[in-house]
Design goal:
230 residues, mainly beta, three-stranded antiparallel beta sheet, 6% helix
Length: 230
């Protein structure tokens, strides 16, 4: 009888879906980014049965809404005509995850409402292009500026070129989302998060000098995430 009770108690412990901490990372796709918007990291700990305290970091590439990839008529290489700067956003977030529907042991979906806010560091780096006018014998790698003709641009500059010339613009961010956790084991976390995020900076960020530029960037996003909990 004692053996049966011990086995039953152990099975109940194994099937229980209680945890106190989790760490997740994910790949983000959003309306202000490219094919991949950036990376997301989040650490959470339970404050109560249905509330988690969260600490997050997001590293994103933010694009101007009018950016369009163009192919050089001379080389076929792509570039973004009219773009003079990149914007990389480092978002630090503190928030709460509210468990709306708890996940059953080894099955089902756990659904959370996600709220977070915090400071943003906007890293504004010059956008370089390979440029050569018709009478030039060699091309030059220069930051795009108004007046350049599209037919004289041979392509985008080297990867990370100009990052050492970056300027920092402070700002803040606010996020609201719904989180769906689909993992099938207690120790692993797998799922997706979809919602709305707002970045606001202390001044206008000039990404395309010949277009309207903004200091506020609203975006819709989806993040596929994976992680662990205990």
């Amino acid at each position: 009888m004692a053996v049966v009770l011990a086995v039953a108690a152990n099975a109940q412990t194994q099937d229980s879906y209680t945890y106190s901490k989790e760490f997740t990372w994910g790949i983000n796709k959003n309306t202000s980014g490219g094919l991949i918007g950036g990376l997301v990291f989040k650490k959470a700990r339970k404050r109560s049965e249905r509330v988690l305290e969260t600490f997050g970091l997001e590293i994103m590439n933010v694009k101007h809404p009018q950016e369009v990839r163009t192919n050089s008529i001379q080389t076929g290489n792509f570039f973004i005509f009219g773009k003079s700067n990149y914007l990389y956003a480092l978002r630090f977030q503190y928030g709460r995850d509210l468990i709306l529907f708890k996940k059953a042991p080894q099955q089902g979906v756990e659904i959370k409402a996600v709220f977070a806010a915090g400071p943003t560091l906007g890293i504004v780096a010059p956008y370089y292009v390979e440029y050569a006018r018709s009478n030039d014998l060699v091309s030059n790698s220069v930051q795009y500026h108004p007046g350049m003709a599209a037919e004289d641009i041979l392509g985008t500059g080297r990867l990370f070129q100009g990052i050492g010339e970056s300027k920092i613009v402070p700002g803040g961010n606010l996020k609201a989302a719904i989180n769906f956790e689909l993992g099938t084991t207690k120790s692993q976390v797998t799922g997706f998060e979809a919602g709305f995020l707002l970045d606001a900076y202390t001044k206008t960020i000039e990404l395309m000098p010949e277009s309207k530029n903004y200091s506020v960037f609203p975006t819709l996003f989806i993040t596929l995430f994976y992680g662990s909990r205990k």
